[in-house]
Design brief:
Layout (H helix, E strand, L loop, with lengths): L2 E5 L2 E4 L4 E8 L3 E11 L6 E5 L12 E6 L2 E6 L8 E9 L12 E2 L3 E6 L1
Parallel strand pairs: 2-10
Antiparallel strand pairs: 1-3, 3-7, 4-5, 4-8, 6-7, 8-9, 8-10
């Protein structure tokens, strides 16, 4: 019954900014083990940020993830056309161990980000 709902996507010009939001509801997910992933047509899915502060090299210094209550945010600055993709938030299933599992259990529906040059 865990639900993740993303919002905030849209179209911006190169150099612009967007702030994505992911509202989580239900129980059984790991609040600490959440992240943002993106996928563009013809490309592999890429993990871009985690709720614990890990970032893909392609977005370091430009993207920032934060968690406030039940909402995970992704602030995206200095956007380029290479950032155009469908962005998904995801969460791992809660478990009692330390660290995070290697895969996510729950996924949002995605929000589209388009950056024009």
């Amino acid at each position: 019954q865990v639900q993740l709902v993303e919002s905030g996507g849209g179209s911006v010009q190169s150099g612009g900014s967007l702030r994505l939001s992911c509202v989580a509801s239900g129980s059984g997910y790991s609040r600490s083990c959440m992240g943002w992933l993106r996928q563009a047509p013809g490309k592999e899915r890429e993990k871009v940020a985690s709720s614990l502060g890990a970032y893909a090299d392609s977005v370091k210094g430009r993207f920032s993830a934060s968690l406030d209550k039940s909402t995970l945010y992704l602030q995206m600055n200095s956007l380029t056309p290479e950032d155009s993709a469908t962005y998904y938030c995801a969460a791992a299933r809660w478990y009692g161990g330390s660290g995070c599992p290697s895969s996510y259990e729950y996924w949002g529906q995605g929000t589209q980000v388009t950056v024009s040059s």
